[in-house]
Amino acid sequence: MTVLVFGAAGFVGRRLVSKLMEARVEVIGADIATAGAAISCPFNTVDVSDRDAVAMLVLDVRPKAIVNLAYTTGVAIEADLDRSTRINVNGHVNVLDAARASGVRRVVYSSSIAAYGPSQSVYGHREITESDSCPLEGHNTTYGAMKAFNDFIALRLRTKCDVETCGVRLSIVFGPGRRHGFTTWTSRMLEPAGEDQVTIPIAPDDPLSLVSAGDAARLLALAVNSPAPLPPVLNSGGYRVTARSLANEIARINPRVRFTFSKAPTPPLFVDRVSGALAEHVLGFRQQPLPAALRAEMARAVR
Protein backbone atom coordinates (compact mmCIF):
# COMPACT_ATOMS: atom_id res chain seq x y z
CA MET A 1 0.00 0.00 0.00
CA THR A 2 1.36 3.41 -0.99
CA VAL A 3 0.27 6.58 0.82
CA LEU A 4 1.09 10.07 -0.44
CA VAL A 5 1.35 12.64 2.36
CA PHE A 6 1.14 16.35 1.54
CA GLY A 7 2.54 18.46 4.37
CA ALA A 8 4.93 15.63 5.29
CA ALA A 9 7.58 18.02 6.65
CA GLY A 10 5.16 19.75 9.02
CA PHE A 11 4.47 19.54 12.73
CA VAL A 12 2.05 16.57 12.53
CA GLY A 13 3.22 15.39 9.11
CA ARG A 14 6.61 14.18 10.37
CA ARG A 15 4.89 12.19 13.11
CA LEU A 16 2.41 10.67 10.65
CA VAL A 17 5.16 9.58 8.26
CA SER A 18 6.86 7.74 11.14
CA LYS A 19 3.61 6.10 12.26
CA LEU A 20 2.79 4.87 8.77
CA MET A 21 6.29 3.54 8.21
CA GLU A 22 6.13 1.70 11.55
CA ALA A 23 3.04 -0.01 10.14
CA ARG A 24 5.10 -1.02 7.06
CA VAL A 25 3.22 1.33 4.77
CA GLU A 26 5.11 2.70 1.77
CA VAL A 27 5.07 6.48 2.24
CA ILE A 28 5.85 9.21 -0.28
CA GLY A 29 6.20 12.66 1.26
CA ALA A 30 5.45 16.02 -0.34
CA ASP A 31 5.78 19.54 1.03
CA ILE A 32 6.71 23.04 -0.02
CA ALA A 33 9.45 22.95 2.62
CA THR A 34 12.92 21.80 1.65
CA ALA A 35 13.30 19.68 4.76
CA GLY A 36 13.33 16.42 2.86
CA ALA A 37 16.54 15.32 4.54
CA ALA A 38 14.69 15.23 7.86
CA ILE A 39 12.00 12.93 6.50
CA SER A 40 12.62 9.18 6.52
CA CYS A 41 10.76 8.51 3.26
CA PRO A 42 11.08 9.52 -0.41
CA PHE A 43 10.34 13.25 -0.55
CA ASN A 44 9.05 15.63 -3.24
CA THR A 45 9.19 19.41 -3.04
CA VAL A 46 5.70 20.43 -4.18
CA ASP A 47 3.56 23.48 -3.55
CA VAL A 48 0.04 22.21 -2.93
CA SER A 49 -1.36 25.37 -4.52
CA ASP A 50 0.29 24.40 -7.83
CA ARG A 51 -2.56 22.48 -9.46
CA ASP A 52 -0.48 20.96 -12.26
CA ALA A 53 2.34 19.88 -9.95
CA VAL A 54 -0.10 18.19 -7.57
CA ALA A 55 -1.86 16.39 -10.43
CA MET A 56 1.41 15.20 -11.92
CA LEU A 57 2.71 13.88 -8.60
CA VAL A 58 -0.49 11.99 -7.82
CA LEU A 59 -0.54 10.55 -11.34
CA ASP A 60 3.10 9.50 -11.02
CA VAL A 61 2.82 7.94 -7.54
CA ARG A 62 -0.62 6.34 -8.02
CA PRO A 63 -1.16 6.03 -4.26
CA LYS A 64 -3.91 3.98 -2.70
CA ALA A 65 -4.59 6.84 -0.28
CA ILE A 66 -3.65 10.50 0.13
CA VAL A 67 -3.28 12.50 3.32
CA ASN A 68 -3.37 16.29 3.04
CA LEU A 69 -1.92 18.17 6.00
CA ALA A 70 -0.66 21.18 4.01
CA TYR A 71 -2.19 24.28 5.58
CA THR A 72 -1.41 27.84 6.59
CA THR A 73 -2.49 28.62 10.16
CA GLY A 74 -2.72 31.41 12.70
CA VAL A 75 -2.04 35.06 11.99
CA ALA A 76 -0.24 34.13 8.76
CA ILE A 77 -3.67 33.61 7.17
CA GLU A 78 -4.74 37.23 7.63
CA ALA A 79 -1.24 38.53 6.90
CA ASP A 80 -1.40 37.14 3.36
CA LEU A 81 -4.98 36.12 2.63
CA ASP A 82 -4.31 35.55 -1.07
CA ARG A 83 -1.50 33.06 -0.45
CA SER A 84 -3.40 31.41 2.41
CA THR A 85 -6.47 30.92 0.24
CA ARG A 86 -4.36 29.39 -2.54
CA ILE A 87 -2.88 26.91 -0.06
CA ASN A 88 -5.81 26.23 2.26
CA VAL A 89 -8.72 26.26 -0.18
CA ASN A 90 -7.31 25.87 -3.69
CA GLY A 91 -4.71 23.39 -2.45
CA HIS A 92 -7.43 21.29 -0.84
CA VAL A 93 -9.40 21.30 -4.09
CA ASN A 94 -6.25 20.47 -6.08
CA VAL A 95 -5.59 17.39 -3.98
CA LEU A 96 -9.21 16.21 -4.18
CA ASP A 97 -9.39 16.72 -7.95
CA ALA A 98 -6.07 14.94 -8.48
CA ALA A 99 -7.30 12.02 -6.39
CA ARG A 100 -10.49 11.78 -8.42
CA ALA A 101 -8.66 11.99 -11.74
CA SER A 102 -6.11 9.32 -10.78
CA GLY A 103 -8.55 6.88 -9.21
CA VAL A 104 -7.38 7.30 -5.60
CA ARG A 105 -10.05 5.78 -3.38
CA ARG A 106 -9.37 7.50 -0.04
CA VAL A 107 -8.34 11.03 0.95
CA VAL A 108 -7.83 11.83 4.63
CA TYR A 109 -7.17 15.45 5.53
CA SER A 110 -6.68 17.54 8.64
CA SER A 111 -9.79 19.42 9.59
CA SER A 112 -10.17 21.15 12.95
CA ILE A 113 -12.55 21.76 15.81
CA ALA A 114 -12.35 25.36 14.55
CA ALA A 115 -15.01 24.25 12.04
CA TYR A 116 -17.48 24.31 14.97
CA GLY A 117 -16.82 28.02 15.53
CA PRO A 118 -15.27 29.68 18.57
CA SER A 119 -18.03 29.50 21.15
CA GLN A 120 -18.94 26.49 23.28
CA SER A 121 -21.97 28.43 24.54
CA VAL A 122 -23.72 27.84 21.20
CA TYR A 123 -23.77 24.10 22.00
CA GLY A 124 -24.27 24.33 25.76
CA HIS A 125 -22.50 22.08 28.23
CA ARG A 126 -22.71 18.96 26.08
CA GLU A 127 -20.02 17.39 23.96
CA ILE A 128 -20.00 18.42 20.31
CA THR A 129 -20.45 15.65 17.77
CA GLU A 130 -19.79 15.39 14.06
CA SER A 131 -23.43 16.22 13.26
CA ASP A 132 -23.03 19.72 14.75
CA SER A 133 -22.10 22.73 12.65
CA CYS A 134 -21.51 26.46 12.82
CA PRO A 135 -23.03 28.96 10.35
CA LEU A 136 -20.56 31.12 8.46
CA GLU A 137 -21.49 34.23 10.42
CA GLY A 138 -20.69 32.38 13.64
CA HIS A 139 -16.98 32.15 12.85
CA ASN A 140 -14.54 34.73 14.17
CA THR A 141 -11.44 33.41 12.36
CA THR A 142 -10.81 32.88 8.67
CA TYR A 143 -9.07 29.66 9.69
CA GLY A 144 -12.25 28.16 11.13
CA ALA A 145 -14.37 29.27 8.18
CA MET A 146 -11.84 27.76 5.75
CA LYS A 147 -11.86 24.45 7.60
CA ALA A 148 -15.66 24.32 7.51
CA PHE A 149 -15.65 25.15 3.79
CA ASN A 150 -13.07 22.43 3.13
CA ASP A 151 -15.33 19.90 4.83
CA PHE A 152 -18.23 21.04 2.64
CA ILE A 153 -16.17 20.71 -0.56
CA ALA A 154 -14.90 17.26 0.42
CA LEU A 155 -18.42 16.05 1.18
CA ARG A 156 -19.62 17.28 -2.22
CA LEU A 157 -16.87 15.29 -3.95
CA ARG A 158 -17.56 12.24 -1.81
CA THR A 159 -21.25 12.38 -2.72
CA LYS A 160 -20.68 12.79 -6.46
CA CYS A 161 -17.58 10.65 -7.05
CA ASP A 162 -16.06 7.36 -5.98
CA VAL A 163 -13.58 9.02 -3.57
CA GLU A 164 -13.93 8.40 0.16
CA THR A 165 -12.98 11.64 1.93
CA CYS A 166 -12.57 12.01 5.68
CA GLY A 167 -11.74 15.23 7.51
CA VAL A 168 -10.21 14.56 10.92
CA ARG A 169 -11.31 17.42 13.15
CA LEU A 170 -8.38 17.75 15.51
CA SER A 171 -8.54 19.55 18.84
CA ILE A 172 -5.69 21.94 19.71
CA VAL A 173 -2.58 19.88 18.97
CA PHE A 174 0.24 20.17 21.49
CA GLY A 175 3.80 18.95 21.31
CA PRO A 176 7.32 20.25 20.79
CA GLY A 177 8.26 21.84 17.50
CA ARG A 178 5.12 23.79 16.69
CA ARG A 179 6.15 27.13 15.22
CA HIS A 180 2.96 28.38 13.57
CA GLY A 181 -0.68 28.82 14.54
CA PHE A 182 -2.79 30.42 17.24
CA THR A 183 -1.59 28.05 19.97
CA THR A 184 2.18 27.83 19.58
CA TRP A 185 2.43 28.57 23.30
CA THR A 186 1.38 24.97 23.97
CA SER A 187 4.73 23.91 22.49
CA ARG A 188 6.70 26.41 24.54
CA MET A 189 5.19 24.89 27.69
CA LEU A 190 6.84 21.58 26.88
CA GLU A 191 10.18 22.56 25.39
CA PRO A 192 13.22 23.12 27.59
CA ALA A 193 14.55 26.66 27.41
CA GLY A 194 17.08 28.89 29.10
CA GLU A 195 14.25 30.31 31.21
CA ASP A 196 11.92 28.36 33.44
CA GLN A 197 9.23 31.03 33.15
CA VAL A 198 6.51 30.42 30.55
CA THR A 199 3.86 32.99 29.63
CA ILE A 200 0.42 31.60 28.77
CA PRO A 201 -1.65 34.16 26.81
CA ILE A 202 -5.01 33.11 28.25
CA ALA A 203 -6.56 33.31 31.70
CA PRO A 204 -6.04 30.46 34.22
CA ASP A 205 -9.64 29.26 34.05
CA ASP A 206 -10.05 29.50 30.27
CA PRO A 207 -11.00 26.01 29.01
CA LEU A 208 -9.27 24.10 26.22
CA SER A 209 -9.72 20.91 24.22
CA LEU A 210 -6.34 19.30 23.54
CA VAL A 211 -4.84 16.36 21.68
CA SER A 212 -1.16 15.44 21.63
CA ALA A 213 0.76 15.49 18.35
CA GLY A 214 1.52 11.81 18.85
CA ASP A 215 -2.14 10.91 19.26
CA ALA A 216 -3.14 13.12 16.31
CA ALA A 217 -0.68 11.25 14.09
CA ARG A 218 -1.89 7.90 15.44
CA LEU A 219 -5.52 8.79 14.66
CA LEU A 220 -4.64 9.88 11.12
CA ALA A 221 -2.70 6.65 10.56
CA LEU A 222 -5.64 4.59 11.81
CA ALA A 223 -7.94 6.42 9.40
CA VAL A 224 -5.60 5.83 6.45
CA ASN A 225 -5.26 2.12 7.22
CA SER A 226 -8.87 1.45 8.24
CA PRO A 227 -10.41 -1.58 6.51
CA ALA A 228 -13.84 -0.17 7.35
CA PRO A 229 -15.50 2.78 5.57
CA LEU A 230 -14.76 6.18 7.07
CA PRO A 231 -17.35 8.86 7.90
CA PRO A 232 -17.10 12.24 6.14
CA VAL A 233 -15.73 13.90 9.29
CA LEU A 234 -14.28 12.48 12.48
CA ASN A 235 -13.53 14.26 15.76
CA SER A 236 -10.33 13.48 17.60
CA GLY A 237 -11.99 14.24 20.91
CA GLY A 238 -9.82 16.08 23.38
CA TYR A 239 -8.63 16.49 26.95
CA ARG A 240 -10.89 19.16 28.43
CA VAL A 241 -8.67 21.18 30.74
CA THR A 242 -8.23 24.73 31.92
CA ALA A 243 -4.98 26.57 31.33
CA ARG A 244 -4.27 26.32 35.07
CA SER A 245 -4.86 22.56 35.29
CA LEU A 246 -2.67 21.99 32.24
CA ALA A 247 0.11 24.06 33.80
CA ASN A 248 -0.24 22.10 37.04
CA GLU A 249 0.10 18.78 35.18
CA ILE A 250 3.27 20.00 33.47
CA ALA A 251 4.67 21.31 36.76
CA ARG A 252 4.24 17.86 38.31
CA ILE A 253 6.54 16.48 35.63
CA ASN A 254 8.93 19.46 35.57
CA PRO A 255 8.77 21.23 38.96
CA ARG A 256 11.23 23.93 37.84
CA VAL A 257 8.87 25.53 35.36
CA ARG A 258 6.73 28.49 36.41
CA PHE A 259 3.75 29.90 34.53
CA THR A 260 2.17 33.31 34.23
CA PHE A 261 -1.30 33.84 32.76
CA SER A 262 -3.32 36.61 31.21
CA LYS A 263 -5.08 38.55 33.96
CA ALA A 264 -8.43 38.65 32.13
CA PRO A 265 -10.36 35.95 30.26
CA THR A 266 -9.65 36.03 26.53
CA PRO A 267 -12.29 35.66 23.79
CA PRO A 268 -12.42 31.97 22.84
CA LEU A 269 -11.01 30.77 19.53
CA PHE A 270 -12.16 27.16 19.84
CA VAL A 271 -14.87 25.08 21.46
CA ASP A 272 -13.81 23.00 24.45
CA ARG A 273 -16.16 20.00 24.76
CA VAL A 274 -15.60 17.65 21.82
CA SER A 275 -16.78 14.05 21.62
CA GLY A 276 -14.36 11.41 20.39
CA ALA A 277 -16.96 8.63 20.55
CA LEU A 278 -17.21 8.14 16.80
CA ALA A 279 -13.43 7.78 16.38
CA GLU A 280 -13.45 5.19 19.14
CA HIS A 281 -16.36 3.32 17.55
CA VAL A 282 -15.03 3.35 13.98
CA LEU A 283 -11.28 3.09 14.58
CA GLY A 284 -10.87 1.98 18.18
CA PHE A 285 -9.04 5.24 18.90
CA ARG A 286 -8.72 6.57 22.42
CA GLN A 287 -6.34 9.20 23.67
CA GLN A 288 -3.71 8.11 26.13
CA PRO A 289 -4.05 9.59 29.64
CA LEU A 290 -3.00 13.25 29.73
CA PRO A 291 0.00 12.76 32.07
CA ALA A 292 1.34 10.01 29.78
CA ALA A 293 0.82 12.19 26.70
CA LEU A 294 2.62 15.13 28.33
CA ARG A 295 5.55 12.93 29.37
CA ALA A 296 5.84 11.48 25.89
CA GLU A 297 5.83 14.90 24.23
CA MET A 298 8.27 16.36 26.77
CA ALA A 299 10.60 13.42 26.23
CA ARG A 300 10.48 14.10 22.52
CA ALA A 301 11.43 17.73 23.16
CA VAL A 302 14.79 16.77 24.69
CA ARG A 303 15.82 14.33 21.95
Protein architecture, described:
With 303 residues, the protein is an alpha/beta fold. It has a domain at 2-171 and 212-237 and 273-287: Rossmann fold, CATH 3.40.50.720. The chain is built from ten helices and twelve strands. Strands 3-2-1-4-5-6-10 form a seven-stranded parallel beta sheet, sandwiched between helices. α1 (13-22) links the parallel β1 and β2. It is globular. The model has no long low-confidence stretch (mean pLDDT 92).
Give the topology string: H per helix, E per strand.
Answer: EHEEHEHHEHEEHEEHEEHEHH
CATH class membership of the domain at 2-171 and 212-237 and 273-287: Alpha Beta
Helix and strand composition category? alpha/beta
Individual helix count: 10
Low-confidence runs? none
> Strands of the biggest beta sheet: in what spatial order?
3-2-1-4-5-6-10
The general outline is globular
Summarize the structure.
The protein contains 10 helices and 12 strands.
Topology:
Layout (H helix, E strand, L loop, with lengths): L1 E5 L6 H10 L3 E6 L11 E3 L5 H11 L3 E4 L6 H5 L1 H22 L3 E7 L29 H19 L3 E7 L1 E3 L10 H4 L8 E4 L6 E6 H13 L7 E3 L3 E4 H11 L4 E4 L15 H7 L6 H12 L2
Parallel strand pairs: 1-2, 1-4, 2-3, 4-5, 5-6, 6-10, 7-9, 8-12
Antiparallel strand pairs: 9-11
Which terms summarize this structure?
globular; three-stranded mixed β-sheet; single chain; alpha/beta; Rossmann fold; 38% helix; 303 residues; seven-stranded parallel β-sheet
